[in-house]
Amino acid sequence: MNNYIKFISMRAGNFSIPLVIVMLCVSISTMAQGDGARFYWKGLAGTNAFPVIANSMGGNANPLDPAHSVVAGSDFTAVMSMAGYAKMLPIGKRSAMVSLLVPMGRISGNLSIDDTLSLTPSASFSATTRGFGDPLLQFGINVIGPKAIMNIPDMLRYKPKFSLDIIGSIAFPIGHYDNTSPVNIGQNRWYGRIGTPVVWQIGSWVPGKRTTFEFLPAIWFFTDNTDFEGKTLKTEPMYQLEGHLTRDFMEHMWGSLDVISYSGGKATVDGVEGN
């Protein structure tokens, strides 16, 4: 995918927090790019975030297909907006976050489809769809690491050291869906994931000198789409592995080396396997 752009607005309670806190809830819209570096850094309990995100994407897979199913000979383009809400909150002494993000926009596809999707061999056509996608709800809680950040002194003392979270998400299949077209914003099925993101502090925790290694293993699950052009689409679980090595260049500037891999997610349509 290419031409990826994000615009984010945010409102916090009585405390100005780093932009990274807003990034805690944007991965829902950027599954092909992964969750992103410094995604699971913690913020002040009670913080509210209202992300507004714009994406321009293209490639040989529907950008909103959570299984990233590649269609040979296809060319997808999408202009999408995402709007949502996220809140940092304490559960006991642990830091947690709940978020909801709703995609909306327009997807166009030029496809040359063969038997891999159990459709008419060598069929070529164009399709366009617009509307709202499937809202995705995500919840995450820290199980190893520092206690929840309850006030400004806690924020100043915060050091992730070795931090491990458990996350879970689920998408509600209420987005716009046309059962006569393989190009859709909604997916007409439930899907979601579970994962265990890790943040590992390397060296001192001084702004301008912070370094982290971050790792995310996750598994995506999909129910069947029983009306995929009149057929049944089944998708096997998909495995996500993501890693980041991040480093501060100065107090308010940092960069990262990133790697991400998706595997599995093989689809079958009425028993005919894809690649």
Can you walk me through this structure?
The chain is an all-beta fold and 275 residues long. 2% of the residues lie in helices and 50% in strands. The chain contains one helix and 16 strands. The chain has one helix spanning 152-157; strands spanning 48-49, 52-59, 75-91, 94-113, 123-132, 136-144, 162-171, 191-195, 198-202, 211-222, 225-228, 231-235, 238-250, 253-264, 267-269, 272-273. Strands 1, 2, 3, 4, 5, 6, 7, 8, 9, 10, 13 and 14 form a twelve-stranded antiparallel beta sheet that branches. The protein has a four-stranded antiparallel beta sheet with strand order 11-12-15-16, with no helix packed on it. Strand 3 and strand 4 form a beta hairpin. The longest helix is centred in the middle third of the chain and has 6 residues, at 152-157. Residues 1-32 and 115-121 have low confidence and may be disordered.
